[in-house]
Task: inverse folding
């Protein structure tokens, strides 16, 4: 996401059977590696730290209900079982709509 909340690039991938925490950590690692050119969580954290030391970034926590685009990407990665890079112009209408909802601060509640 850009500073204005616009999508610059997105992806989804499949990480097999693992916890949601491990999947999110691995996705962060994958995103950092793929956009810049059977492991343990510790390895991924160390890899992330190496990438972050080269970048000027900041992170903040957001509850799952407030980030429906990340939820959509995670679900599609699990369904499709492969890596797929989506540039901003390639995002589907569905994802663009979800981004708008995120930018407007509207939560997504699962039923």
Result:
């Amino acid at each position: 996401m850009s500073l204005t909340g616009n999508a610059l690039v997105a992806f989804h991938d499949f990480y097999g059977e693992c916890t949601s925490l491990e999947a999110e950590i691995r996705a962060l690692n994958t995103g950092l590696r793929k956009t810049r050119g059977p492991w343990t969580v510790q390895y991924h954290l160390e890899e992330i730290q190496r990438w972050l030391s080269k970048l000027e970034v900041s992170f903040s926590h957001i509850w799952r209900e407030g980030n429906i685009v990340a939820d959509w990407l995670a679900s599609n990665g699990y369904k499709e079982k492969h890596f797929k890079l989506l540039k901003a112009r390639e995002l589907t209408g569905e994802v663009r709509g979800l981004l708008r909802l995120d930018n407007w601060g509207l939560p997504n509640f699962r039923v």
Summary: Residues 9-103 form one domain. The chain has one domain: 9-103. The longest strand covers residues 9-12.
